[in-house]
Amino acid sequence: MRDWIDFGMVRDFAAENTAAYRLCTKPEGWAECYGGDALVSYKTAAAREEILHELDEWARLANQPFQRVFGRFLPKQNAERNPPVLLLGTKEESLQTTVLERGVCYGLDFGAGYSTGLFLDQRENRRFVRRGAPRRMLNCFAYTCAFSVVAGMTGAETLSIDLSKKSLSRGRENFMLNRLATERHRFMADDVVSVLPRLARKGERFDMIILDPPTFSRSRTGRAWQVEHDFDKLLLSALEVAERDAKILLSTNCTRLNERALEVMGRFCLKASRRAGTFQATAKLPDFPPGVAARSIWMILR
Length: 302
Ligand SMILES: C[S@@+](CC[C@H](N)C(=O)[O-])C[C@H]1O[C@@H](n2cnc3c(N)ncnc32)[C@H](O)[C@@H]1O
What we know:
By secondary structure, the chain is α/β, with parallel strands linked by helices. It is built from eight helices and 16 strands. Strand 3, helix 2 and strand 4 form a beta-alpha-beta unit. It is globular, with a radius of gyration of 19 Å. The structure holds S-adenosylmethionine.
């Protein structure tokens, strides 16, 4: 089936204990698998119907029936974003569920908001964190703390910062789901932009830093932040709390910024802060066509 992942890939995901992946990508929408649930995201009703029809056929051929199918409209404006709605399956089951990725358990909530709780296109960056086994990780714009959980699995101390208390409390639950005690993990509901200079003044240092900001944000005081204009300032602040050999993830969903632009910005910031470093591309995601996932690179300080 064109646009859909093949069954060999599904077997590969199952073999590595992963049940959350992109099923198909089309110009007007896509479908994702979250264990026994599927989520269809669409820009038009025609795209929704086409994907639903093909999902039914794919599930039959793959012998992988979905208990529930959710649908989510993809609006042009963020303000019009709504939680997914149940299209197929029983209403009695909880909208809160869990899913495995490489053996790590993540909580999902199909009713909490537009996003489910796990960004599938950060899978390879989560693996990079796990393999890098950091000592102290700073997770900026942490959302449900997925990056912190994988760092915690390898014994790191973590600090997760997000404006949303609700997301951080889901983050705590993700630690508990993986039987990780939270004593060595801090959760800070605050504005990353104002916290970073405070951490630097206190002399806090981290050997891994995650910078995955939203395209646009407004702090509690109403200050606007835009990734295209402000990512360099954010990275310069992050460099102030970076250990000599730190690894920093630069990631964005902004379609106007590609990996090349991130690297150019990274080189500028290295020079401005008199630091030295190289860049490493994020590994390719087998289930995402080129140019579809979040754009990201790792800055490796030395
Ligand atoms: C794209 S999500 C991050 C996803 C996360 N890196 C992951 O992989 O799960 C952006 C998050 O940034 C948070 N956020 C937006 N503006 C912020 C700010 N100024 N300071 C802290 N968090 C912010 C939002 O609440 C949201 O949870």
